[in-house]
Amino acid sequence: MGILASGWSLLPSFTVIGLVLGGTYALAAMGLVLIYRVSGVLNFAHGAVAMFSTFIAYQVAVRWHLPSVVGLLAAIAAGMVIGYIVERLTMRPLTGRPALTKVVITIGWLLILQAGAGLIWGATSYHEPVHLVSRSGFRLIGTQVVIGYDQLTTLIVALVFAVATALLLKRTILGTSMRAVADDPDTGKLWGISVNRVTAASWMAGSAMAAVAGVLITPLINFNTYSLTLIVIDAFTAALIGRLTSLPWTFVGAMFLGIAETYPRAFFNGAGVSSLVAFILMLATLAFLFRPGFSRGRTV
Amino acid sequence: MNPATARRASVFAGIVLAVAIPGLMTDYYRSLAALAVIVAILILSLNLLTGFVGQISFCQYTFAGLGAMTVGALSGAQGHHWSFWISMPLGVLFAALGGFLVGIPALRLSGLFLAILTLGVALGADRYLFANGTWNSFTGGVNPRTPSRPTLFGYHLTGQYSFYLFAFVIFLLVALLVWNMRIGKTGRVLRAIRESEVAASTMGLNLVKWKLAAFTVSAAIAGLGGALLAVQIGSVSPASYDFLHSITLAAVVVVAGVGSLASAAIGGLFVWWVPELLNHLGVNAQFFPLILGTLLVTQLVFAPQGGVVKLQHDLGKLLKIGGRRAALEPELAEVL
Amino acid sequence: MAMLELKGISIRFGGVQALDDVTFSLKRGEILGLIGPNGAGKTTLFNCVSGVLKADTGTITYEEQDLKGLKTDARAHLGIARTFQNLQLFASMTVLENLMVPLDAFAARGMVGDAFRLPRARYEEKKAEEHARAILHFLGLTEHTETIAGSLSVGLQRRVELGRALCLRPKLLLLDEPAAGLDAVETAELAALLPEIRARFGITMLLVDHDMALVMKACDYIYVLDFGKLISEGPPARVSSDPQVVKAYLGEAEEVA
Question: I want to staple A45 with a disulfide (CB 3.0 to 4.6 A). Which of A110, B20, C68, C84 is the partner?
Fold first, then answer.
């Protein structure tokens, strides 16, 4: 790994890149936290769901040449369907079992989705990502930084979802129900909340967010069945920074992660550094920030 | 039928079959058999952690990778030409160190979050440690290392059948050691820790020491498996030790069941022979993870203790064998 | 000479003063009883002595040694054993295995010895098994040697826990509600068993329980705890007629009624 002398001057534009990356992480992470908070399950297949949904978008937009937006909508729909199936078929029947069982089930789903995508679209390394918006951009006044419209769109989408989720949880009946179920499903039932429907809704919403994250991140990274599934680790780290409970902190954590992974690239050659940063941050947050007391130890 | 006699008889029969049948196979199938046996060793390493201490680990292949790459780096044709008998123990040691390091944060985590930690370790190792560019002198970088087969008592184990027997003997040794541990102090102590940490420490057990020991030994065994894999396949590429492999191993363990020798062996066979079967039928290799994932999901929804173990229990009840065995078969159901 | 000395032990949980300046001592060879209504702090006190909890203030001295900072397993190695109010047996293991665990903890052999069945390991294992079986015999549990501990009745489980504690070869035995869940017959058996254990093994005991019959019969001296404070002490006869004690217990009865 060599050190690039021009590192510091790259920082402004790398900040943009980092924030964009962080935005996609935030989307995925918030979806993960939503599912975890309401249903108590840490969805290891979250990245795989994102991957599969993104491939649907790919199929629609790239293979069938429909408009990109239609592809995005198809991805969202796919995410919601997958989320619903997973919850309805393999989570709901296991009420009362320990959380670990359900997590291992999500591992099974990871394998299924991964293999499924490989079978349908081929596990080759490169696929043309879905471009929602043109790559061209504009120059930020007073600096050398160029911001692409696609980058801007990603950031805005991430922010919109963050705000929308917050509003959903605070202002709507569904959202309030979700928070009630998250805190105490039994009491929730007493209040007439359909725990099943709320849980299913959280899985669908969370998976939809993963789908959007997937579509947005594919222009930035290698688009294949493998790499997108791995996004789950970055989503995890961000979610851990939010202690798996706080959506705002998850958002912040994701942004931080995005920048922390990108900045070193200005100074060092090779992608290894960003991976190292992600790895260390993940271990650190898991081992030190996360106290077992915060876990949802009860069976769900 | 006396349970001890029944057990000895079936083990003996199993060994005879395992030695004889590959003798009749072609070299290609013999290599598959060797691979199956090595994976069985990896399953035993997971056995130690899960069956005893009740922890799930999704990074056994990472430890195996540490062992494999040590052998590759030291015994490979490109680098040094050290004997397998030096590089293998070093690989095991290195893997053990890895297990120890992972064990430290693992001390304060359990169940779900331990699983997350091990997954994170696997993914982190994939993306950083084993990735191209980080430590090429260790991982071999773009060009895979090609360690050569060991020499045993002057006999060079290049023959596929002879290497299979070598691997099989090692499997039996490891199985024996693990078994001895399980019925002895180690097994009791680790199961006690799993049952009630409070009571265990009140009885004088140092939880930290034992948990770390469990992780270290489990990783060491995985490292041994990795060293054998390196030499069986003949080349070491980091992709063979990625998190997907670790997950597959864990999935196979859940499906086959943790606890018995038989399930370890069957798990190993499953990992290598089902894809082979698919290949034979002209079916895409991707169907293997698909089948495995589906089996895992349906398994957990309907029968958490694992297919093989359940079968053994049912067979045992049928033939009226039971008793002490029941206490010795730690079921994944208790973990899950 | 005092074997165990508690001086000024206080501990607070949230808004509740669970233990308030508790001071007493335990003489070697004594069977000391600690009684008090529910919530008086008895189990909390035990947790402090065995190392599960740390007191806010005060000292606990065992055989002239301050126990401060010593972990639970270290205290076990000093000879402090304990049974649990809510039964912490190793439920999926057999009775024999349960008793062998403390013997394992004190044995020197490690994983290697086990794995390779080294001579010393085999010897230690055999000795440990003999010792455990002897204790089982003493407690009348021989017929249940290979039974899964969790499948036994409460009375038998309590006896297994007692046996497990005895296998630690303790000098001090803390018994936390050993009669909980036992019927009158079993309790009387226990009352007779404790002095026998003292006579046979020379163990000093600190007993905490609700059951007045047990405490009166088995203990040499009693301390009474209420709301974390010591309100009375003395030989059984004196304590049972102490008006303060009666009030504390009656008060509890009144609340229940």
Answer: A110
Find the helix or strand (DSSP H, E) in which C66 lies.
Answer: strand C65-66
Q: Which two tokens stand for residue A68?
A: 């990109």
* Interface with chain C: mutation pick from B49, B107, B188, highest number of C CBs within 10 Å: B188
> Under an 8 A CB cutoff, do B201 and C71 touch?
yes
Packed helices B287-302 and B243-256: angle between N→C axes, nearest 10 degrees: 40
Distance from CA of C95 to the nearest CA of B (A): 11
Q: Which residues on B lie below 8 Å from C146 (Cβ)?
A: 323-324, 327
Amino acid code (one letter) for A270: G
Q: Is B158 helix (H, G, I), strand (E, B) or coil?
A: coil
Q: State ipTM.
A: 0.84
Highest mean pLDDT among A22-31, B324-333, C39-48, C64-73: A22-31
State the angle between helix axes of A99-121 and B111-124 in degrees (0 to 180), rounded to the nearest 10: 30
Domain boundaries, chain A: 7-288
Task: Pick A49 or C52 by higher pLDDT.
Answer: A49
Q: Which residue numbers in chain B have pLDDT < 50?
A: 320-336
B304 chain-A contacts, CB cut-off 8 A: 97, 101
Q: What secondary structure does DSSP assign to B228-289, as a single string? A: HHHHHHS-B-GGGGSHHHHHHHHHHHHHH-SS-HHHHHHHHHHHHHHHHHHHHTT--TTHHH
Chain C contact for B314, CB < 8 A?
no
Higher model confidence: residue C227 or residue C90? C90
Measured distance CA(B116)–CA(B97) in Å, rounded: 20
CATH C-level class of B3-335: mainly alpha
- What is the spatial distance between Cα C234 and Cα B271, in angstroms, rounded to a whole number? 71
Our answer on whether A and C touch (3+ beta-carbon pairs < 8 Å) is no
Q: Does domain A7-288 have CATH number 1.10.3470?
A: yes
Per-residue pLDDT tens over the stretch B277-318: 777 777 777 788 888 888 888 888 876 555 555 555 555 555
Which two three-digit tokens encode residue A183?
Answer: 């805190």
Q: Per DSSP, which regions of B27-131 are E strands?
A: none
pLDDT in tens, chain A (300 residues): 445 556 677 777 788 888 888 888 999 999 998 898 888 888 989 989 998 998 898 888 888 888 888 888 999 999 999 999 999 888 888 777 777 778 888 989 999 998 888 888 876 666 677 776 666 666 666 666 777 777 788 888 888 888 888 888 777 777 777 777 777 767 667 666 677 888 888 899 999 999 998 888 887 776 777 777 777 777 878 888 877 778 888 888 899 888 888 888 777 766 667 777 777 887 777 766 555 444 433 322
Is residue A265 within 8 A of residue A274, CB to CB? The reply is yes
CA distances from B225 to B41, B68, B163, B228, B241 (A): 6, 8, 14, 5, 11
Contact B327 C82 (CB under 8 A): no
Q: Subunits that touch chain A (at least 3 Cβ pairs < 8 angstroms)? A: B
Phi, psi at residue B133, to the nearest 5°? 105, -25
Q: Where are the domains of chain B?
A: 3-335
In one-letter notation, the amino acid at residue C145 is T
Is residue B96 within 8 Å of C112, Cβ to Cβ?
no
Substitution target in B185, B197, B332 with the highest count of C β-carbons within 10 Å is B185
Helix axes A46-58, A68-85, angle to 10 degrees: 140
